[in-house]
Amino acid sequence: MQAVKRDKASGDTAGKRNRRAETTIAAILAATEKMVLREGSDRISILDVCMLAGISRGTFYRYFASQDELLDAFARHKRASFQQAMIEAVAPYAEPTARFHALVRYLDDYAAHGQARLLLRAAPEYTLRLFGRLFNESLVRIDDLMRIVFDAWDRRLGIRTDRELICELLIRCVLSELVVPNQRPEDGVQRIVSFLYSIVECESGDTAQNKS
Questions:
Q1: Where are the domains of the chain?
Q2: What is the pLDDT of residues 10-55, one digit of tens each?
Q3: CATH says 1-64 is which class?
Q4: Which CATH architecture has domain 72-204?
Q5: Rounded to whole angstroms, how far apart are CA atoms 168 and 161?
Q6: I need a surface site. Which of 76, 112, 184, 190 has the fewest CB within 10 A?
Q7: What's the distance, Cα to Cα, between the start and end of the chain in Å?
Q8: CB 165 within 8 A of CB 197
């Protein structure tokens, strides 16, 4: 019985320690974002990050060995946040059309209202490297999330849509929006949807013509 109690107490302590570590890391990453937006990635100071996060330098070095390691972790955090938010945006929708529209709404909102454009202005080289990794990761993620959409298009049109091209166009639309904002943000979603549907319809027409 005593051994069971000790194991339970040990487990509770470890759980609290893990939650405290997660909270501390989240505070460090939030402070890093504020510093990057304010000073750029080249001028970020570990001391300033610690002050903003409300921690000591000793606590900081418990989780990150250097400024470069911190910036790498921050980039991973931003990419992971983007992917997770995208998953959550489309998860409620099983119907293909609704799921596709949910994805485009998310991407449009990210480009128009997210922090990415501010990061690009504050730390262009750093953010462009982040975008490069995000681009490749998102191709795989969107293809997975949109599988039921692409399957529905294939059945409806009687062709195999170029899934990789569509995923690439979606991400490139987001990146171009971040660099050169849309002058008509209120109809951004519908324009992207109409454009992609026109590509799919053209592909279907070309396939039918070749068969005839």
A1: 1-64, 72-204
A2: 555 566 778 999 999 999 999 999 999 998 888 889 999 999 999 9
A3: mainly alpha
A4: Orthogonal Bundle (1.10)
A5: 13
A6: 184
A7: 80
A8: no
